[in-house]
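Fold description:
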Amino acid sequence: MTRARFVEWRALGRASSVLAYAAIAASAPACSEPATPAGDPAASAAPAAAGDPDVPAFQPAVLQPAACTTVVPNGPFSNAAFTAQHGRFHVEYDATPTTNSLDGTVGLSAGAATGFPQLAIAVRFNTLGTIDVRDGDNYRADIAEPYAANTSYHIRIDVNLRGHSYSAWLRNAFGGYDELAAGYGFRTEQLGVTSLDTVDTKIDSQNGNLTTCGFVMVADATTADGCVVASAGDGFETVALTDTSVLDTLGFTATVDTIGLDAVVALSAGVPANFNGLATAVRFNVDGNVDARNAAAYQADIALPYDTDPLQFRVIADVTSKTYSVFEGSTFDASELARQYAFRTGAPATHLDHLAIEVDGPSGTLTVCFPYATPSVGAAYSREGTYAVVP
């Protein structure tokens, strides 16, 4: 299963529920509307408008972009420090080579690198005129991407430091990202590294310069293709959503990498410290089925087994009654997993403003793609089948 299939995304939920909800809420994104790439500094500059289908639910804050740096042949490594990272994060930068036969590398390391073996991560403009990426003990790429002299290339690197792996992306002309490297391993000499805190640039050829500009580091678990990822041991990975105090619709696609893990996708008020802070929860159970939290226990109205293929979910949460319903499937073929379940017992739920995901088992990874939250507009309260609306 490749991430390319995630691009073909649809609004979720049962058709009758959509019609009832449309009277009091902004419309959900249409099938043809592409998601804005996650982590785009330009998109992150302004908060998402409620129900805006062209803005992703998560808007991570970025560091102040750094000034440009140019490295020349026979020069030393150029090093720039950033806040030390120990979990998931991503970096973005623009790189401009002055020749198409360069041997220029931009990498990440623990401390300032003085030699290539110190680079845990490396993206290279190679002498053959293509961009490649370090994977263990060699350079390669999932796609053949040529580069041209005096052309700027925007590169993003999504890092899983605990897993010692990373993915590299190249922004295309449409504002999206092409995946140069998916899940490559850290350089062999750096498989034991526990933190990264420096960006390093070096030219190993006798001609050409390489200029990098606008380097930013974002400490979050998002990926360039609009997803947020959590693995066993990561704890809660959270995404800020548009705040709501009445009725909220959350849509997302969820994929696990193994059957039998224990993982949840939930809504909360603020960043949860533990499971007691989760108001709603859709769970991938160790028994191979999906269920949902109902007050003090997990249950489901239907049997919904899961595998490693993506599942589409819609959660409709009513803060006024502290209840929620869960649908699985596309708009015209949805199943109701949970109907009017109660928020978790004791969870603070006067409003909802965060998506939280966690893998609580000893292994496994949960990937949630294209999360969007659509709060109600002008609703005083809601009940199943009956709505009171203020002007």
